[in-house]
């Protein structure tokens, strides 16, 4: 079979590339080994798909080249995707931090994309295994339904996260085959795990959730953190996990926006008879307050159990430091099985930022999460999928 363009991957980026190319009159065949299109869209945003973010600026993406995403994001913007959503009369709402969600179901987004792709004349072939990819003169893609030849190949097979949903490293296999470099990959937007004895301490707090600021160096996220049986999760932790180098500490501010030293000293002045645990219980969830107070008693001795009025500055400052800057050293992450995204991927230096085309291989394009561009939590990753898919679909 011959066609103009083969897109491998009927996910967010692949469908958008197919729509854009199909609308230009190109014959497009989309191949996917899954039994349904857009499987990750369906489970995204708790089933409601956080499909974009109104604050989508390039600074909110991780990449070896922090300018790479700029062009595609500017050419197909959150407003462009929202216009498509509105054209299909899909009800949506804005949650916090510019995050846009469907009112009803992520299924609305998949139906919209599949409908648009079909209206643009593209063919989506599911349950199709992709084998060898070669390029004698045109691209030849071997599949279990026979070979397909195409002038252009758009690789939209996503990242490595959630392998049980069909994630594979096909993009990297194709990259290697054509000499396109790949930046090292790791799980992103993923819960952090800890070794003993820290793990036992965090386990005892499982279920506690609070407003925090999680930081690594100058990168900081003010959102909720959640203690779990395996370590730490919640939006602040997922966000910072993408920046974690696998070695260093993560700082957790349990009283974000407030100077704990001042808060504690003022309470000591006004409420000198109260116990430290009581004061902390007014600032933090009870179990966490008990845990921190217990830690201080273990460190400073039984005097720390008495009225806070009797505590010396040294002890109070020690408590304040652990409130404003609890330094935790993760031992790892929950890995691709739990990661929302993959950090790293096809090296952006090998791609045109305008078209997503591989510089050294005419007609070969990489889009979406397979590329070394990873967004923050909150709709950024889908916007990258739409924008990069659109860019390739205009050029392929
Ligand atoms: P995507 O993974 O969507 O699609 C890749 C396609 O390629 C799949 O259909 C797959 O079957 C196919 N494929 C892979 N290997 C293949 C092979 N060897 N042969 C044939 N086909 C192959 N982002 C966001 O912005 N808002 C959100 O609300 C969420 N929520 C969310 C929840 C969960 C649980 C996860 C895991 C992820 C999110 N994300 C998210 C991230 C978002 O889902 C992700 O960034 C995009 O789906 C990436 O789009 P792609 O099209 O690049 O890959």
From TrEMBL:
Q: What Pfam families does the database record attribute to this sequence?
A: HI0933_like, HI0933_like_1st
- What UniProt keywords are attached to this protein's entry? FAD, Flavoprotein
All copies of the RsdA/BaiN/AoA(So)-like Rossmann fold-like domain together span: 4-394
Tree of life domain: Bacteria
Cofactor(s) needed for function? FAD
Flavoprotein among the record's keywords?
yes
RsdA/BaiN/AoA(So)-like insert domain span: 186-341
Q: Which spans are transmembrane here?
A: none
Asked if the Swiss-Prot or TrEMBL record annotates the protein with the keyword Flavoprotein, the reply is yes
| NCBIfam families, alphabetized | aminoacetone oxidase family FAD-binding enzyme (TIGR00275)
What this protein is called in its record is NAD(P)/FAD-dependent oxidoreductase
